[in-house]
Amino acid sequence: MSDGTKSAKIETRALEFYYGTTQALKDVSLTCPANCVTAIIGPSGCGKSTFIRTLNRMNDVIPGTRREGTILLDGKNIHDPDVDVVELRRRVGMVFQKPNPFPKSIFDNVAYGLRINGMRDPRKLEGVVEQSLHGAALWEEVKDRLEANAFALSGGQQQRLCIARALAVEPEVILFDEPCSAIDPIATAKIEDLIHALKKRYTVVIVTHNMQQAARVSDFTAFMMLGELVEYDVTEKIFTNPASKLTEDYITGRFG
User: How confident is residue 6, by pLDDT bands cut at 50, 70 and 90?
Assistant: First the structure.
């Protein structure tokens, strides 16, 4: 399903995923439109994080896993033999549940990926670091202490630093896996405002257990249950007039 006006940035077709003999995803076909926020909701253990981690092949590093089906980025299969996984993960960045800054300065955290990709010019580095911190709505708070250790930042600031680090390498898609579960409500509001702003330039996919958050930040919502995609539609419709009784029961708090 797409809204008919936006092109598909990421699409999965009949996606299945196994941890050993345990099937975590069952026949998931989903389109994430470009420059939109797609939220993935559902109870714990329903396959949300597994799904999002297939989109940049993060699950490849887990031994004993197996995938079937197709994942397309701009219409190209991300498992084609000529796909460079490092380049794929640059294009499809990820922000995790807990802030995970490196034990380095604020500046070096943001510059890390740039240096790995060969950028050495100090002036260029400074420009991109500043731009990325602006993009993550963190510049004003840290501009006078870029050499301070990242661990000196609050949890919410650390999470925005991780977003700046993801932005620095110029991704096209940003995956958020429960980005606000470890931070306080004020920091959560800042991250939500940021996600809203980011979709002008990026395609965003967010896994969240917080249904109010999904309703606030997303354009489309997918409801998953036991590894299956139960329903996917425009967020407003999912929350006001869902097609499935299961979706309605989850959203109204009857289970989950």
Answer: confident
Distance, CA of 164 to CA of 214 (rounded, Å): 22
3 occurs within a structural domain:
no
Sign of CA dihedral 60, 94, 247, 233: negative
Which helix H or strand E contains 59, and what residues bound it?
none
Is 195 inside a domain boundary?
A: yes
1 inside domain: no
**Tens of pLDDT, residues 50-77:** 999 999 999 999 999 999 999 999 999 9
Residue 3 confidence class, pLDDT cut points 50, 70, 90: very low
CATH code where residue 223 lies: 3.40.50.300
Range of the domain at 201: 8-251
Q: Quick one: CA torsion of 209, 213, 215, 220, rounded to 10 degrees?
A: -70
Closest CA to 41 of 242, 241, 221, 256: 221
Token representation of residue 27: 């026949």
Question: How many domains are contained in the chain?
Answer: 1
